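cron nightly-structures :: item 1 of 1
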Amino acid sequence: MGTVVQERPRKKLRPTKPFVPDLVYFEPGALEYPKGAKIMEWVKSQDIPYRMTSSHNRITNLPGDTDQEKYRNAKRTLVVGVRKTLEFDQSKPSAEYAIPISTGCMGHCHYCYLQTTLGAKPYVRVYVNTDDIIQAAKQYIEERAPEITRFEAACTSDPVGLEHITNSLSDLITFMAGEEFGRLRFVTKFHHVDPFLKLQHNGHTRIRFSINSDYVIRQFEPSTSHFEERIEAAGKVAHAGYPLGFIIAPIIWYEGWEEGYADLLKRLADTLPQDATSDLTFELIQHRFTKTSKRVIEERYPKSKLEMDIAKRKTKWGRWGQYKYVYPDDQQRALREFITERIFEYFPQAKIDYFT
């Protein structure tokens, strides 16, 4: 079996600060919207260098001598633009549709599927025409009424980490509070939830936190909030009356995974306020990768300990026309059964939405 990974003794970590980009680009028309003008005011107040660009596709001169340096600098670059495509992608199994308010992420999670979906342009983009996006969402809601239509706001980004710049999630939460047949969902690895705590939400927004074992967070999730910060934030949103959820993703098979995931759920139960567990959901997602993502991840994080041995995996046809490599059936079954049992041990009233 090999050496079991030992969970390190935990030391007090420095607070995770809100994201402040090193450089900001504004696309044509962005400053004509109130949100764009406010972002420009914030950029100037922070003394952040900014430039105008005809299109984000023309941003090719980011600093860096190597591809890795350019990638890291791109992650510290913000692009402010107008969302032109208002047709929403599907977002199964999380929701009916993905609602586009931002793209890209300042985190450095080694396994993230955005490594490949964003290609060679991993900078962070935010959209200032929130009213247009909200009107498009309203049309989708009306077309499906009286069925409930759920919108996932974190398919291509972690918008919580950008809320202090955009206020876009607050706009969506406030809008969705008044929609009888509309619901909002988003997931985050960041703890900066204070802007949401006094909003009128009517229980129509479910806030979920991505959590994982200490080993996975420590090895593969740089530049995100610590586990303790995420759980403290979960308690805050639960106290504010929001439906709460957790995504355990990616579930990774490593030596000692049983101890790691058992410890995760025990810490969650010990830390989470009791009144936060009455309407609790879990989503379980095993680690997967494609040949393309494997190549890109190995280029960007050459020292990563992330296991991506194709010989140890089975193939699963992916939605975007590529085979994904997932764990063999016996490992999938072991992961699902063990984590499910621990969830119901500590949270007997919880609901597990899916394992994929």
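cron nightly-structures :: done
The domain at 23-355 is CATH 3.80.30.30 (pyruvate-formate lyase- activating enzyme).
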